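Homework help thread (please don't just give me the answer)

Our assignment gives two proteins as sequence + structure token strings and asks us to describe the second one. The first is just a warm-up. Here they are:
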Amino acid sequence: MSRSGFKVVVSVRKEQYRADMLYHMSLSVAKTMRAKGLITADEYAEIDTVLLAKYQPYLGRLISENA
């Protein structure tokens, strides 16, 4: 693999890691709100769906109930 090809792969991995991190951080807030009864299960599912669409996380799609 050329040096420039390596940089592209590293860049994609960093971007994907960032997307996964932001998705999980945002979903954590929603989980806390759900646990405290501030939002319903349906609202939580809608938030999860919106976050999946926004961040397109690799790992999030594997573990989400709404993917």
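The one we have to describe:
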Amino acid sequence: MTSPLPFPAITVCNLNPLDLSKLSVERGKALDLAMSDAVYSLMAQSKPSNDTGTDGVDPDLMSAALTIADMSVADLMFASDIDTSEFFTSCQFGSKLMDCSKLFTPFQLMFDSVLPPATRRTSLKLTVYVNHAGYSSQVNELGAKFHVHAPGDTPDMMTSRHVAPTGFSTSVALRMFEHEYLPPPHQAFGDSSCTDTDSAEFRRLMDGDPPLYEGSQGGQYSLDACLAHRGFVQVAD
């Protein structure tokens, strides 16, 4: 059974390693990383041979380095940000090109937009530019994260990612699925359910050699085992 979904919300996060607060990381960690990277840049020529970088650098030294560089933490983070007009190269919905600046509402380089319901013949295509100047020597990553999610939900921007080598282009297709568990009597095998103890699939799990469920004893099949085998059914695509 499938039913149409309205076009989901799209959240785009500029993966700026110098300001991890954009990824909902504690602000303190973002400040430490920014200062550490500044120290690393100033001390690059005298970097220890064991490649330990600036781990464990004294906070006072970090502050002194920022003073020497004549940059505040905010300045350092701002310098690695990328403007919306530069970030989005093109935005296309179906066959129609759209104004990216009007399609998305920026909030700390995170975007969210709810579009009219889409059909299978329409799609939203976003082309973005990732500025290599935002590269962090401490984290060794930069880029952007795209999440499709239900309108009103807050996505987890720290989940897994698709990685492309620096200097290359990549394309990724995203689709949204919505699942829900079936209510009692807990459909499990085609048209049968976990209360249909005489069904072929129910008996197969119990009578297999060895039984697919090791907890079955004396011809008694556990309802819990049946529920454990029950998969969730896709109800919307």
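TA reply:
I won't write it for you, but here's a hint about the kind of observation we're looking for: The chain has a mean pLDDT of 55.
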